Amino acid sequence: MTGLGSPGVVPRDDAPRGVAAREAAGRLDVVVTGTSSDAHTWNLIYLELLLTEWGNRVTNLGPCVPDALLLERCTARVPDLIVVSSVNGHGANDGLRLIAAIRESAELASTPVVIGGKLGTLGDGSAAWGPRLREAGYDAVFDDSVGVLEFHGFLEKLRAEARC
Amino acid sequence: MAQSTRGLAPTSFGGFVRAAGELVVQPRMGFSSPERMRRGLDATRAADATTVGTLTIDSYTRVGDLPAARRALDEGVDLNGFPLVTHGPRRTREMLDGVHGPDFPVQVRHGSAAPQDIVRALTAAGLHATEGGPVSYCLPYGRTPLKESVRNWAESCRLLTDGVGDGAEPHLESFGGCMLGQLCPPGLLVALSLLEGMFFAQHGVRSVSLSYAQQIDPEQDAEAVRALRALAAELLPGVDRHIVIYTYMGVHPATRSGARALQEAAVRLAVRTGAERLIVKTTAEAHRIPTIAQNVAALEDCAVTARHTEPGAAARDDGGSEVYAESRALIDAVLNLGSDLGDALLTAFRRGWLDVPYCLHPDNASRSASFIDERGRLAWSSIGSMPLGHVATARPAAALTSGGLLEALHHMAARLDLGELTRAPSGEPYPIRDGAM
């Protein structure tokens, strides 16, 4: 699990409450990660809280994650979903390289992977990079102009599939 | 322009700032191409303001991924900063030639927990001012173990003091007043700034600056800067020093009026507390990496605001403020852990005596957490093991959910974009100057 263990910050996932407890069967194992060159963390902390509150089990790899470390952690225990988040402007560039490495790994070839945040340096991430990132292998691209609802919808679809 | 002071060499960054006679303003600026970087520095120098230049390093260089920086340059991929090491000393010297000098010092800003290559490259290029710190360039920014960062920064202090040629005084700014940018209660920010400044001094740096990043409440911020100044006077005797304010480093207002109101509040904070330097943001901040013109407009706007702001009372006693009490408690605890500050910092983090809220680094205890209280000030919902029990009351019920965190992160931007804070305390609207911004 993550180093973000403050009792005031994250409800621990070994103590599911409310909706989380009821839906434990549909709970997804989610890895949240920054990209190799991105040191930002608020996006990762928010995503961890959000995904945990939505009843999922979250492993937060933190910022500046080298591709090899992500691959090592994810192939050891194949998650239901990998969420790549970046806001420093190198996200699309890092993300293209990363997804190629993920898809080359036999264990992770079909693992759902999404990317989101501020993906380019010019504030036009989704329009400029979305198609390329999807083509390269991401299952969805959530540029920061997209609200959290679409992400929630994506998650619910995955959970529904997981229950089938 | 500035003259040297207190016996510092004329090409001292610290000497320039303290002799400037008005608030020195500085952009956050870095471009991949030497030509554009040069244009940025020229424009900063030519701005109608007392300025220093900035060479912000790209984030591949920051994490030591030099092959990626090389590849990006070869493929023409735009970087988010100047790849100092990859361009190398000769190209950097050419870029700086005729712009960098005693009347326009340039500071290298990066964010590396292993900055040896960057320090070697900057001294080889004839530069002598940079920023960082063993804690503040490690915990918020990556995966380097704190122990390695302490070692790296001790070595970097030596490389800086040994590498700078005759006639220049190496300068190091502590980034400790900015940990994670926002939602860190000021007592901890002030303590970290001071402890890093003392670490630099312990490793031979004779000219330092101490940073503090604007948070969410002007009065709490003013208490923080006054505490920083008072503690620096006590704990850094004989060291050339000044205080640098960072314009709000959290989520930035998306509207022009909101961004300007926030920037003006930062200028007033700096002038009223007697801070000597200000890191400026632009109205484009929420949307993109700003252009040169946007940077220059922001610098000039800040200079105008500064010239119209009354300085505060000089020597206000701060022994009684909440921020002073918290900072003092943390600093005293760390200093009591031993005479080697690097070791003391490591022990303090291992025990959770220093504990940065919302920090994901494995060497941070992550048992502290903060929230925005009913007065609109940053406060603790959990102090973990920090020795603050006698000066602060933690309120566990105030712990943030994801929605609460998002709201707290957007607290300033939301209020400013709604126009709530765009009036001066007198109730008069701030004068609107329709410049180039």
From TrEMBL, chain A:
<dbReference type="GO" id="GO:0046872">
    <property type="term" value="F:metal ion binding"/>
</dbReference>
<dbReference type="InterPro" id="IPR036724">
    <property type="entry name" value="Cobalamin-bd_sf"/>
</dbReference>
<dbReference type="InterPro" id="IPR006158">
    <property type="entry name" value="Cobalamin-bd"/>
</dbReference>
<feature type="domain" description="B12-binding">
    <location>
        <begin position="27"/>
        <end position="164"/>
    </location>
</feature>
<dbReference type="GO" id="GO:0031419">
    <property type="term" value="F:cobalamin binding"/>
</dbReference>
<protein>
    <submittedName>
        <fullName>Methylaspartate mutase</fullName>
    </submittedName>
</protein>
TrEMBL record, chain B:
<keyword id="KW-0413">Isomerase</keyword>
<dbReference type="Pfam" id="PF06368">
    <property type="entry name" value="Met_asp_mut_E"/>
</dbReference>
<dbReference type="InterPro" id="IPR006396">
    <property type="entry name" value="Glu_mut_E"/>
</dbReference>
<keyword id="KW-0170">Cobalt</keyword>
<keyword id="KW-0846">Cobalamin</keyword>
<dbReference type="GO" id="GO:0019670">
    <property type="term" value="P:anaerobic L-glutamate catabolic process"/>
</dbReference>
<dbReference type="GO" id="GO:0050097">
    <property type="term" value="F:methylaspartate mutase activity"/>
</dbReference>
<protein>
    <submittedName>
        <fullName>Methylaspartate mutase</fullName>
    </submittedName>
</protein>
<dbReference type="InterPro" id="IPR016176">
    <property type="entry name" value="Cbl-dep_enz_cat"/>
</dbReference>
<dbReference type="GO" id="GO:0031419">
    <property type="term" value="F:cobalamin binding"/>
</dbReference>
